[in-house]
Write a structure and sequence with these properties.
The protein has 512 residues and is α/β, with parallel strands linked by helices. It is 42% helix and 10% strand. A 13-stranded parallel sheet has the order 1-2-3-4-5-6-7-8-9-10-11-12-13. The termini are far apart.
């Protein structure tokens, strides 16, 4: 790995924390970034913390400091090292408390860390987005109670993840009653396991005018009325990416259908989306949008690059609109899972991929009923997608023979890097039904699968395409946010199940 003599020297100093602390007064200001990356690489948390305490520059941008540079080519942005990230935040707190007249720091940008499954840091212990949010919020609250903290605040840019487990702490950090030595600005915001009222409250505090990415997922129960209220009352003028939870476009329980068949809530939501002139990514998976796609996407002023319509129950009119709208020619990431595309919409599906081919990088077609008889059509549809890098088609009832034929064709896509393919139908008991539930999905012949997977890899190898990664993640790809908050989500599901049982028992007693 390429590294300069300057970086080797920085490593040597960072590897001796006591010497580094004593020598900081003689270190040139422009060498602090180099010394910081060296301390992060070596996991010398004590050095990292003291560097932040004495940071002599006006800006501290974590992702830029950890990325490749002329002095050190390695990219450390996928190291969410707990020890180092805690040292960064503690060092920021020390800076506001003890920096005295030397304080020059104005902006601390803590965004840009990539959460990955396997940590590359020596300790192997990660601090995920939820943990980083809790750490930052707790530190902000502690500093608000400190009489010696700096009066001129440091602006902290952060990626925030809020659930019921850290909600109160985050609210206190974002909405301080008095001086705030660290003033948090949210660039991306993920919410899970919150009520609609909690979501609105914390988003108002988070500075929605600065927000670039908003993910509202899983256990935030929203209907169309909540979504309309969120977009109209809070407003997100600079939002680039929006993810909404399942059933987000369902009508409120108390609403009555309009006599003319119009949907005023959807019209209002579309109008609010059209005001977001930076919006290029939209995920509305598992929302029923039958016959509504044109009304939702038609008013948008900027073409979408990322669109997730998985399991949205689209019909012919929706697919026809999608294949012919302005968005199609700009799509880079597309998810149409849960739709029988080749059976129900063959011509519009072909046209859509043809329109998207010059830009399309990632395509997901999970549980689309793609069987052996559809492989020829699928090969033709994918043919023009010469820029495609990722293809996912898990949960489709294909045989080993059909997969082999498809893999031969995939070798012709020059930029393809990753394929997620289903367990072949041959590996399941004869007559197995599709789509499968989790239990049925996991009951297959492992030995037969391994042999078929090895044969498919051999197809790629013979074609000189061993650069394509192939896998079958049965229960989805690694999600660091779900992994980190799985205990809280489990408790929430158990509580929901308990509540449902209590309601059922109460209903039975009333019937008696």
């Amino acid at each position: 790995m390429m590294q300069s003599l300057r970086f080797v020297s920085a490593e040597a100093l960072a590897s001796h924390p006591q010497v580094a602390r004593q020598s900081l007064g003689g270190v040139a200001h422009n060498l602090y970034p180099l010394l910081f990356k060296a301390s992060y690489l070596l996991e010398q948390a004590e050095v990292t913390r003291v560097l932040l305490e004495h940071w002599p520059l006006e800006e501290f941008r974590l992702a830029a400091l950890l990325g490749p540079s002329a002095d050190h080519a390695a990219d450390l942005r996928d190291r969410a090292c707990r020890a180092c990230l805690e040292a960064c935040v503690r060092g920021l707190a020390d800076h506001t408390l003890w920096g005295g007249g030397r304080r020059r720091l104005r902006v601390a940008d803590l965004t840009g860390i990539r959460d990955v499954q396997v940590q590359g840091c020596p300790c192997g212990r990660a601090l995920g987005r939820w943990g980083r949010t809790k750490l930052l919020a707790r530190t902000c609250c502690e500093l608000q109670a400190e009489p010696h903290a700096a009066r001129r605040p440091v602006e902290v840019l952060a990626d925030i993840f809020v659930t019921g487990g850290n909600f109160d702490l985050v609210v206190r950090a974002l909405g301080p009653e008095g001086p705030a030595p660290l003033r948090v600005r949210c660039l991306s915001f993920r919410a899970d396991s919150l009520g609609p009222g909690q979501l609105l409250h914390v988003l108002r505090l988070a500075g929605p005018g600065e927000l670039r990415r908003l993910e509202v997922v899983h256990n935030v129960r929203l209907h169309a009325g909540h979504v309309q209220q969120l977009l109209a009352q809070v407003g997100f003028p600079r939002l680039v990416s929006l993810t909404l939870p399942a059933k987000a476009f369902d009508a409120p329980p108390t609403s009555t259908p309009a006599p003319d068949g119009e949907d005023p809530l959807l019209t209002s939501i579309a109008r609010e989306l059209s005001r977001m002139t930076h919006l290029t990514e939209l995920s509305v998976a598992f929302s029923t949008l039958t016959g509504k796609l044109q009304k939702l996407l038609g008013p948008l002023r900027t073409p979408l690059k990322v669109l997730d319509l998985g399991n949205c129950d689209l019909n012919h009119a929706d697919m026809a609109f999608l294949a012919n709208c302005a968005h199609a020619a700009h799509l880079e990431v597309l998810d149409l899972s849960g739709h029988c595309l080749v059976d129900l919409f063959p011509s519009t599906f072909f046209r859509l991929l043809g329109q998207a081919a010059p830009t399309l990088r990632a395509l997901t077609l999970e549980e689309c009923g793609l069987a052996d008889r559809h492989v020829g059509a699928l090969i033709l549809a994918l043919g023009p997608c010469r820029r495609l890098r990722e293809l996912r088609f898990l949960g489709n009832p294909m045989s080993a023979r059909a997969l082999r034929r498809l893999f031969v064709a995939l070798c012709e896509l020059p930029r393809l890097q990753s394929v997620e393919f289903p367990v072949p139908r041959d590996c399941y008991p004869e007559g197995s039904a599709y789509p499968q539930d989790e239990l049925a999905m996991s009951k297959f012949d492992q030995q037969k699968y391994s042999a078929i997977a090895e044969d498919l890899r051999a197809v790629l190898l013979r074609a000189g395409r061993d650069d394509i990664r192939v896998s079958t993640p049965l229960f989805g790809s690694f999600d660091p946010d779900i992994e980190e908050t799985s205990n809280e989500l489990g408790k929430l599901l158990l509580q929901a199940f308990k509540t449902a049982l209590e309601n059922f028992s109460r209903a039975l007693k009333q019937m008696e």
